[in-house]
Amino acid sequence: MTFSIRPLDAVSRPFFGGEVSGIDITRKLTGEEATSIEKGMDHYGVLVFHGQHFDDETQLAYSRNFGMLEEASGDLNWGKARRIESALVNDISNLDNDNQVLARDNRKRLFSLGNRLWHSDSSFKEVPAKYSLLSARKIPAAGGNTEFADMRAGYDTLDDETKAEIENLVCEHSQLYSRALLGFDDFSEEDRVRFKPVLQRLVRRHPSTGRKSLYLASHAGAIVGWPVPEARALLRDLIEHATQRKFVYAHEWKQWDLVMWDNRATMHRARPFDPKEVRDMHRTTVGCELSTMAEAA
């Protein structure tokens, strides 16, 4: 079987979400293969690979084909003992360091519920994420899907007046904002310093394709120069517009799926599942080379 990418929904969304076949990405890639995958990412925004039996070492090796990797510094356990050895692998699970399912009221679990809000990975960092790569090591019997929204289509379908209004707006992003939406405020002073707001452009131009997209997230809680209530009302309207079902692909996980997405062109959110079941996902994250402010300049 030769390498190919087909649209996941050729009728409704042929431009968003691709299924890759004919390649084993757990082995070392050729330069040509890595380039083909990047071109697929530019076109589809999200790529799905089935049956990829990664461990952390091979996932890290694959991810490095696409740039420098981020440290997993966006959780409450940063600087403490972790379940996953490598600081370059994000623990997207409901497990403690002894591989036991977290209690329903566990602080780590409650913080992680923020992943159910629409967001873009690492938008709360000055230099945010380029690609995210999520490997399904163990999944629940039902639920736990991940939904992806096409921010390019979200931007393209705005009216001209709105496009002009938002073109040069700058937002403040922080996990303090997104967790506050769910009523989570159990932050230490160290957490509050680490999660201090950063500036991000509301409209981005993709460096490879030149397409504009909305750069939205539940982490965005303010617009520079705007009253907070007015800013949050606009951001909510934009998120509602950009996450219409016609712009959304819902991925139903199978064990050993690897899903890869471009945070510069998408938002995503996790969906609920039985909290007594194990959902063990490992994410590696390729960082952007520039901040959104530097990209615009």
Structure commentary:
This protein is an alpha+beta fold. The protein has a single domain (4-296), classed as Clavaminate synthase-like (Double-stranded beta-helix). Helices cover 25% and strands 26% of the residues. The chain contains 9 helices and 15 strands. The strands form 4 sheets. It has a 7-stranded mixed β-sheet with strand order 1-2-3-13-5-15-4, with helices on one face. Strands 12-6-14 form a 3-stranded antiparallel β-sheet. Strand 9 and strand 10 (212-214) form a beta hairpin. The longest helix is centred in the last third of the chain and has 15 residues, at 228-242. The chain is globular, with a radius of gyration of 18 Å. The protein starts with a strand and ends with a helix.
Can you summarize this structure?
With 297 residues, the protein is α+β, with helices and mostly antiparallel strands. It is built from nine helices and 15 strands.
